[in-house]
Every structure is written in C-alpha cells, then in structure tokens.
Write a structure and sequence with these properties.
- It is a single chain.
- The chain is an all-alpha fold and 184 residues long.
- It is 71% helix and 0% strand.
- The protein contains nine helices and no strands.
- Helix 2 (37-50) packs across helix 7, helix 3 crosses helix 4 and helix 4 packs across helix 7 (124-147).
- The two termini are 28 Å apart.
Length: 184
C-alpha cells in the first residue's frame, strides 16, 4: 500500500532557481491581463510554486535589510505584535474568565484598556516599521509572480506538484489557503 503524497507524504524543498532564470537575462516579464483574473491567478500560483525557494530567500533578505536599517523599531514592533497576538489568544480562549474579571474589577479593566491603548499608540512607529518589513517582501513577491511569464519547465514542475507526485512547502501553504485547486 503506497502513501498518498497529498495526504502526508514527504515534503521536498524546491531547488533554488538561477538568478538568470529568476530575474536577469532569460527572464521574460509582461504586465498581466487584468481582465482575465483566472489566467493571472494561474500565473501567480505557478510562479509561487516554481520560484518558492527564491521567494523565501528574497523575503529573508528584505526583512534583514529593514531590520538592519531600523533594528530597535523592528524588534519593538515584533514585540508589540507578539503582545497583541498573545492578548487576542488569551481573550478568545478565556472568554468567561475575562468577562468575570471585567465584572469584578471594572476600574482595573478600564485602566488596562487605557494602558494597552497608550502602549500601542506609543509603539505605533515601531509597529509600522515591523509591518513594512513583513509586507514589503509579500508585495515584492506578488509583483514578481504577477509579471514573470512562465516557461515550459515552470509549467512541467507545476503539473507534477498538482498531480501530487511531489509536495513542497508553497504547495502545502497554497492548499491550506484553499488556492491549490482553483487555478489548475
């Protein structure tokens, strides 16, 4: 009995594509047809699968550059996001306890909200730098995936991925987003 790769087979890291293929001489770019969203989505998804290792390294490089330019703000922004996420998880999981605390200690609850609001406002610049550091790579990857025309090798690799013969991190990510089957 064979393992079905779609249900939990081995995940393979896609190879790093050459710089020439990714962005230099042999790369062909064209503005997508905005009226044909299915074709545009197919191009983006195919490029995300084919160049996923290049995109991962590009994202790391951009995050490092933003972090090098604003290390304190990037670290503080990360901490603010961590605190916001932690508070969100706690409140959603402990709704009854939070509600009871609010009823039993209304003054402390209001003070906590005010201090939390002040904290987020005070750290807003750091939060914006962190969000910029995270969203800039996403934007750069989306622009490249939208403009880069697919070649024959790209199409072949994507067919192997969609048939379930190979699984990659980006394929799993797109599958979790519900996009894996939409464009193929």
């Amino acid at each position: 009995m064979k393992n079905n790769p779609k249900e939990g087979g081995q995940v393979e890291i896609a190879p790093l594509r050459s710089l020439d293929d990714f962005i230099l001489e042999s790369a062909r770019f064209q503005i997508p047809n905005y009226k044909d969203l299915e074709k545009w989505g197919n191009r983006v998804t195919s490029n995300l699968l084919y160049y996923q290792t290049n995109y991962f390294l590009l994202a790391i490089l951009i995050i490092i550059c933003v972090g090098a330019l604003h290390p304190i703000k990037m670290a503080c922004g990360f901490l603010v996001m961590l605190v916001i996420f932690g508070v969100f998880v706690y409140i959603t999981n402990e709704r009854a306890a939070a509600s009871q605390f609010k009823r039993n200690h209304p003054i402390i609850s209001i003070l906590l909200i005010l201090v939390g609001g002040y904290f987020v406002t005070y750290m807003l610049r750091s939060l914006l730098v962190f969000m910029f550091g995270i969203l800039l790579p996403v934007f750069a990857i989306f622009v490249h995936a939208s403009l880069r025309l697919r070649n024959l090798k790209n199409k072949l690799v994507n067919k192997v991925e969609t048939l379930g013969l190979k699984r990659s991190p980006m394929g799993i990510f797109l599958e979790e987003l519900g996009l894996e089957g939409d464009f193929f």
